[in-house]
Amino acid sequence: MEGIDLKHYHDEECDHHLLVETYAGHDKTDSKEELMKMPQQKLFEVLSSGTVKGETLIDLTIAPAFGHLMVAADFFKEIFILDSSDSSLKETEKWLNKEPGAVDWSHAAHISCEIKGVRRDSCQEEHSSSISREHLKAEEEKVRRIVKRCLKWDPTNDNPLGSIVLPQADCAVSIYYFDGACKDHESYRNSFKKFLSLVKVGGHVILFALFNGTYYTIGDHRFSMLNYNEQFVKEVLQDNGFTTVICEVYESKLNTDLVDYKQTEYIVARMEREI
Questions:
Q1: Is 54 left (phi over 0), alpha (psi -120 to 50) or beta?
Q2: DSSP per-residue codes, 2-41
Q3: Which of 85, 83, 57 is nearest to 70 (CA)?
Q4: Are strands 56-60 and 147-152 parallel, antiparallel or unpaired?
Q5: Handedness of CA 74, 51, 265, 113 (dihedral sign)
Q6: Which pTM was predicted?
Q7: Tens of pLDDT along 35-62?
Q8: Is it the case that residue 123 has pLDDT exceeding 60?
Q9: Mean of the per-residue pLDDT values for the chain?
Q10: Which domains does the chain have, with CATH numbers?
Q11: Fewer CB within 10 A of the end CB, N or C, for the chain?
């Protein structure tokens, strides 16, 4: 991508509604499986196992995404959503308030029901189409009830939440945010450190990341993606008092020129000590 002027996550050309539709829309089978269903599945596995538990979850995820929160809402009493993009926060509020033109997440609700149904009832996959409209609606409404606030996150400030003070979280989840929002390794370290500071001692962070990528595409624009790897993430976690509990790295199966990352990572880490 040398010689090409890439846009950034916070630029006005970043259409967050289109970002969701491009990579996690109803008809995006391959990318939806890898980028949306995998986090939902892994999140359900770790939360249902009891490895990660508590009452408060803080979420910092790229774009107005809700599929993983449909899973998390079964295990936490309150969820706080953070984002550094005003337009993404606007789209998030639009979905929470059921406003016209909001992103359609009914297919994520379907995936959430499938995951829980297969695990709970040993249903055969062909029966997943029988999930009722009421069950799908309940998945979405559960998230709307449990999300307490949507807040602007500005990692360039010493206190990214300004004057707002949140209870320290039992669990913090981030899906692909740092890949798109950080311009270099230094900004990643600084931003991730501030995010990790929201977790209480004994709490966990659950991170989904994209490795060895340089760009992703939204509409007519290409946006910068941070190029980093598993070792770098583990170093940052260790430097901030976290011990890795689970780490899984998968080769990407996508065959598209929309994005060029090579691997996906799922990592769970426990905060052992304050720094």
A1: left
A2: TT---B-TTSTT--HHHHHHHHHSTT-HHHHIIIIIHHHH
A3: 57
A4: unpaired
A5: negative
A6: 0.93
A7: 999 999 999 999 999 999 999 999 999 9
A8: no
A9: 93
A10: 16-271 (3.40.50.150)
A11: C
Backbone angles phi, psi at 90, to 5 degrees: -60, -45
Q: List the structure tokens of 213.
A: 């990528």
Q: Which residue has the tokens 């980028």?
A: 35
Instruction: Give me 137's structure tokens.
Output: 């609606």
What would the DSSP string read from start to end of 51-81?
SS--SEEEEE-SSS--HHHHHHTTT-SEEEE
Report yes or no: 145 and 138 within 8 Å, Cβ to Cβ.
no
Beta strand 263-271 pairing with 242-251: antiparallel
Structure token pair of residue 53: 């538990």
Amino acid, single-letter form, for residue 255: N
Give the ranges where 122-265 is alpha helix by DSSP (H): 133-146, 177-181, 185-196, 230-239
pLDDT at 120 over 70: no
CA distance 123 to 138: 19
Average pLDDT over residues 109-136: 69
Pairing state of beta strands 242-251 and 169-175? unpaired
Residues 6+ apart with CB under 8 A from 158: none
CA distance 254 to 218: 16
CA–CA separation, 205 and 192 (whole Å)? 11
CA nearest to 140, candidates 183, 188, 108: 108
The label of the residue with tokens 């409209």 reads 133
- Answer yes or no: are the C-beta atoms of 64 and 20 closer than 8 Å: yes
Question: How far apart are the C-alpha atoms of 35 and 40, rounded to whole Å?
Answer: 9
Phi, psi of 143 (to 5 degrees): -65, -45
